[in-house]
Design a protein that fits this description.
Helix content: 10-25%
Shape: globular
Radius of gyration: 17 Å
Order of helices and strands: HEEEEEEH
Strand order of the largest sheet: 1-2-3-6-5-4
CATH architecture: Beta Barrel
Number of domains: 1
Length: 120
């Protein structure tokens, strides 16, 4: 006997991973400033990649919000523009990195490459 919930469950397909870059479970200090706000939000990432990060926030930002982000990697600050792409109520946001200042993209890439060489 198939119950409706069992039939629905068997039809659910996991969507493919759309990420272009591998993510790393690493806590890095980050500051976010939503466009139009002078209030900095400081926290740690839970995941980090060359293309974005995930942060835990009790009051997440809305999807589509543009932000300025600063990461601190090995005593070096990396600034970039980003956009909120996911929102999980009372849990956090996924941030997509759009444009890096100066050599920030290179610094982030070197940091993540070092994680791959020396995993915890």
């Amino acid at each position: 006997m198939n119950l409706p919930d069992q039939q629905l469950f068997s039809q659910v397909v996991t969507p493919p991973d759309r990420r272009r870059h591998p993510r790393h479970s690493v806590q890095v200090q980050i500051e976010l400033r939503e466009d139009g706000s002078d209030v900095p939000l400081r926290m740690n990432t839970t995941d980090l990649s060359r293309g974005g990060c995930y942060v835990e926030l009790m009051m997440p930002l809305p999807v589509g919000a543009d932000v300025t982000a600063t990461l601190w990697l090995n005593n070096c600050s990396v600034r970039m523009r980003g956009r909120v792409v996911t929102r999980h109520t009372q849990f956090g946001n996924g941030i997509k990195f759009l444009d890096f200042e100066d050599n920030g993209e290179k610094v982030l890439a070197e940091y993540l490459d070092a994680i791959n060489l020396f995993p915890a």
